[in-house]
Amino acid sequence: MSLYRDDAVVLRTQKLGEADRIITVLTRRNGRVRAVAKGIRRTSSKFGARLEPANHVDVQLYLGRSLDIVTQAEIRDPFGDRLRHDYESYTLGTAMLETAEKLTAEEREPAIRLYLLLLGALRALTEQRHDARLIFDAFVLRALATSGYQPALDDCARCGAQGPHRWFSVPAGGLVCGDCRPPGSVAPASATIALLRALLTGEWAAADASAPEFRHEASGLVAAYLQWHLEHGIRSLRLLEPA
For residue range 189-230, what is the model confidence (pLDDT) as tens digits? Predict the structure, then answer.
């Protein structure tokens, strides 16, 4: 077996046998990887709490036939531990991890942009740089864009007619003109669309200044757009419905 090392964010853990866990990580150079952490559930484990979801780690692995084997792990940033102190941030962080896993359909397919987006979003959550829900929505929009699902927020998603347009259709891929508008389209406020643009492009001054009602509407569109393009739901999203 070949030994390799990489930076990674822990996406998920699963029990295996009596003492082991399967660890799913998103790495900087090797994409999504699944590996066995042997004996991690024992109190004497050298890994301890290092390989918990959301933690940013320096991990060393052996390349296995079906699953790799973790031989060493050191924490770079204990995001998981920090997020547990705030319910909203923890839930949003969990939804980010699940989104990142579902957007990496192939194991070992490099996904450096998604890795960096996830790392930056988790850091922003733990440091409370902005409203937690805004950070989540920005991460989802940018993650979808890197995967080829960027919503049309200016010109018509179907015919390309120059905007601005009134209607938004999740199945159509974003804003649509009156001629292309499919059944079920909605008409969000222009300030909501402006907020989505700001989140997608990183204009945080504009995003931070947005009103609660437009954030609420934008979050609904982001959640619907995410679930449509993944073709199945994100379990954590049911805990993120705006009050």
Answer: 999 999 999 999 999 999 999 999 999 999 999 999 999 998
Tokens 């940013």 found at: 56
| Alpha-carbon span 174 to 154, nearest angstrom | 9
Output the pTM of the full model.
Answer: 0.94
| Contact by Cβ (8 Å): 218, 137 | yes
| The two structure tokens encoding residue 77 | 């940033």
Q: Regarding beta strands 68-77 and 56-62, do their DSSP bridges make them parallel or antiparallel, or are they unpaired?
A: antiparallel
How confident is the model over 9-30, as pLDDT tens digits?
999 999 998 899 999 999 999 9
Q: Are strands 167-169 and 31-37 parallel, antiparallel or unpaired?
A: unpaired
Over the stretch 56-69, which tens digit does the pLDDT of each residue have?
A: 999 999 998 889 99
Beta-carbon contacts of residue 209 (< 8 Å; ≥ 6 apart): none
Where would I find the beta strands (DSSP E) of the chain?
Answer: 3-16, 20-27, 31-37, 56-62, 68-77, 167-169, 174-176
* Mean pLDDT for all residues in the chain: 93
First to last CA, the chain: 51
240 φ/ψ angles, rounded to the nearest 5 degrees: -110, 15
Q: Which pLDDT value is given to residue 1?
A: 53
Residue 79 amino acid letter: F
d(CA 105, CA 51): 22
The Cα 99–Cα 97 span in angstroms is 5
Angle, helices 132-146 vs 87-103, to 10°: value is 0
Q: How far is CA 25 from CA 81, 103, 162, 213, in A?
A: 17, 13, 41, 36
